[in-house]
Amino acid sequence: RRAAVAARAARAGSLDELRAAVADCTACGLCASRTQTVFMDGTGSRGVVFVGEAPGEQEDRTGVPFVGPAGQLLTDIVTKGMGLHREEVAIANVLKCRPPGNRDPRPEEKAICTPWLERQLELLGARVLIPLGKHASGHLLGTPDASMGSMRGRSHQRPDGTQVIPTYHPA
Ligand code: URA
Description:
binds uracil; single chain; 5 strands; alpha/beta
């Protein structure tokens, strides 16, 4: 199923096409309980992409990532801390669907969903990825068991040249 997602993602030539393909995804069981998929917010025009773990209840309801209480803090970090408009960064999640009851994403769910995220980052032309929290950070760095303390506080480089700067999850 991951291969099918990867093939479908590769055929998407734009973020709009990718968003539509994601909205149709039934590759894992989360499609049965979601209200809708949550693709991303913002334009990423600064080359910066925040990556959370998975949509929560309010995100599942609205279709927009980080709109709940954690989202308010993230908006403050972007606007007050970084001096950018929220629309200038892109905000996405490793998973595009809400796990029921906000349980942790399962490894196979992340594996199946990752080609969507990787194509999304490619189409965005992302230069700097800021994973939020231990799960997203370990996922993007390929070190799922690493502690937040060991990943945070420095910039990592991925093989494709993008920088990864892990930070705490705003929740
Ligand atoms: N937490 C996340 O990791 N992602 C969201 O979209 C909302 C809360």
